[in-house]
Amino acid sequence: MSAFHLAIEDLLREVSDKVILPRFRNLAAQDIMDKGGDDPVTIADRESEAMLRERLERIIPGLAFVGEESAHADPAVLDGLKGDCWIVDPIDGTRNFANGREPFGILVAMASGGEAVTGWIYDCLSGRFCVAQRGKGAFIGKDRVFARETGETPPVAAISLIFMEEAQREAMRSHIALHYTLTDIPYCAAEQYPRLALGANDVSIFERTLAWDHAAGVLWLNEAGGKAARLDGSPYRVDEIGRTGLVGAATPQLWDDMVTRLNALGQA
Question: What is d(CA 72, CA 8) in angstroms, rounded to the nearest whole number?
């Protein structure tokens, strides 16, 4: 890995060790708040984002910073997604973290012109460090990763129903699920994207597609040879604020199969 990637890895490990892990299963009631719509945030999320913002500014001074918590406090922060920026989820999987469960991690991406160009995924408990740079492949640590299927028949699908309308949920259950072996979603993009490349899951559907949840993972999966894209086949862009619908798969063929079924339902 380059010195740049090593510096990011060191930063994410430090934030995890100093800010996040000491709070794991050690949160008081007042340390957990609800941003609305059963969307929790903890004191660790806020402290992690503050530390990441300060330290990333040292690495590349002046680059716009789009963090999940800062954007919640001030939606104008999202304007940074149109240009060169950092995109940060200080704790991905907060619902798990707040309830003393795993998985959870840190997601960081760099974007330019609305597209992620570099992404990092850090698993706080295992120390797994995923990194991808556009056109240069996907890695875990120093090891190149090539996405692979589970080999199961039918394929294994992780389908997030959380942010879908009830009609969408029913369509998924009635017309899509029967073609797959369904598995639990991890409620954590920092875990779901690696599962798609590492032979644990074959395909996943995401309804809500916020930049801090997906910028790093989409890039990493695509660089590994899998496929993540919008349902109409267009690339995922971080500046399409509010747009929904995204499919990720271990192979382009698995992606095509799922999207063909969704199109038949009029979901695209």
Answer: 24
